[in-house]
Amino acid sequence: MTWLALADHTDRRFSLRGLGHGKSDAPLLEDRPDTLLTRGSIVFETQIPADVRPQVLFGYKTPHPSRRSLVFQAIPGGGVSMVQVQDSSYTHAAINHDNAGRSEVLRVMYAWDTTYNWGRLTLEQAGDSAITSVAVDNPQPLKLDDLRDLMLGRGQQDFAQDVIFAALSNDIEPVGPSPSLAPDTPIATPWGYRAASTLKRGDTVYTHEGDVVPVLHNVLREVPARGSYAPIRMRAPYFGLQEDIVIGPDQHVVIDGPEVEYLFACEKVLTPARHLVNGFAARPETTGPTARYCQLILPQHETLLAAGAPLESMYIGRMRRDQQQVVSSVLAYFDRALLPEHAQPAHKVLKWYEAIHLAKRRAA
Asked: Can you say whether the dihedral through the CA atoms of 251, 252, 254, 256 is positive or negative?
């Protein structure tokens, strides 16, 4: 899979060779006006508009020479709807989000494969494992020129201020848990520190408690380096780090200390890296349009040691029991029989307001 386009309020990019690829690479699509993208994914992240009235978030309308449009709209109650028009063909889907609030960031993904007459609209809350998906009946292929205008901001297109970024892929992008370690993250093993991306099934790693456990799987993925995927640099010597590491915003960091015991009545808690950004201990990492992440799946969801800091390994719960959920995720290419079942996380996962309060107390 390859990301073809990325757009936010300061930068817009579109490449038929794929974002980050050189000019010598072969185009993935023919650059012709009638070229159709029959399979792909449009992903965007947005805050929930405060206005209870419907609001167009993202999309385009092309009236000539034929009527074509694809529009995503926020609907009252926190949901999102999608309407696609191709001449006389009409496609519609909608998802409700019951617990929407202004502080939340939602990730919306529309994926389609017209060869199999298949489409899916998915709503995820950034940093939350809950996923809501609905089938999209009668999806239509999207014209390359329309997608180029949409992503580059030309013609009759909408890109609301609440939208954080949007991206276009030429494949069906996975939903659900995603890796969040930079490939070169040093992971403690019985043979010293090794880059996370080099570890494979059967290798062993140290846990925070000093145990040695086997690696079951190493999950790899490339994502747009924006919004809830934008990398964060965790700086040594904070958090017990021996050197700087780069991780994704949703990577859980294990935090302990007297403030944790006082505030939460437990020895350790998990907090997403996004809530630790303060300009010195953790700060946004400058990068290109995409970021590559990996993550290790361990038997009991044990805690990794990354450059000396305790980080959560990938949590997949009991996904293996749901074939459709596995097929739709980054685990699709693994044997379901070889996936573990994880109980609830060993430590409390802080809510955003709890993590911010803890960070303020530590900075005081």
From this structure: positive
Task: Give the chain's largest Cα–Cα span.
Answer: 67
Q: What is the dihedral of CA 12, 21, 231, 78, to 10 degrees?
A: 50
Which are the contacts of 102, defined by CB distance < 8 A and separation ≥ 6? Answer: 47, 48, 50
Q: What pTM was estimated for this model as a whole?
A: 0.91
pLDDT of 49 higher than 70: no
pLDDT tens digits for range 226-280: 999 999 999 999 889 999 999 999 999 998 888 888 888 888 889 999 988 888 8
DSSP string, 231-253: -EEEPTTGGG-SS-EEE-TT-EE
Smallest Cα–Cα separation from 352: which of 104, 165, 107, 79?
104
Q: Is the pLDDT of residue 82 over 80?
A: yes
Closest by CA to 169, choosing from 12, 285, 73, 44, is 44
**Structure tokens that stand for 180 in this block:** 């969040």
* 174 contacts 319 by C-beta, under 8 angstroms: no
**Other CB atoms closer than 10 Å to residue 40's CB: what's the count?**
23
Rounded CA separation 152/87 (Å): 23
Q: What is the pLDDT of residue 263?
A: 86
Q: In this structure, what token pair is assigned to residue 17?
A: 């060779």
In angstroms, the CA 327 to CA 76 distance is 31
Tokens of 143: 């014209």
182 contacts: CB under 8 Å, gap ≥ 6: 196, 231, 245, 246, 247, 291, 292, 293, 294
Average the pLDDT over 153-170 and give the result: 94
Q: Identify the pLDDT of residue 358.
A: 79
6 residue type, one letter? L
**Strand, helix or coil at 281?**
coil
Which residue matches tokens 């609001």? 55
Alpha-carbon gap, residue 92 to 86, rounded angstroms:
12
Burial 111-123 (b: 16+ CB within 10 A, else e): bbbbeeeebbbbb
Higher pLDDT, 75 or 230: 230
| C-alpha–C-alpha distance, residues 19 and 225, integer Å | 11
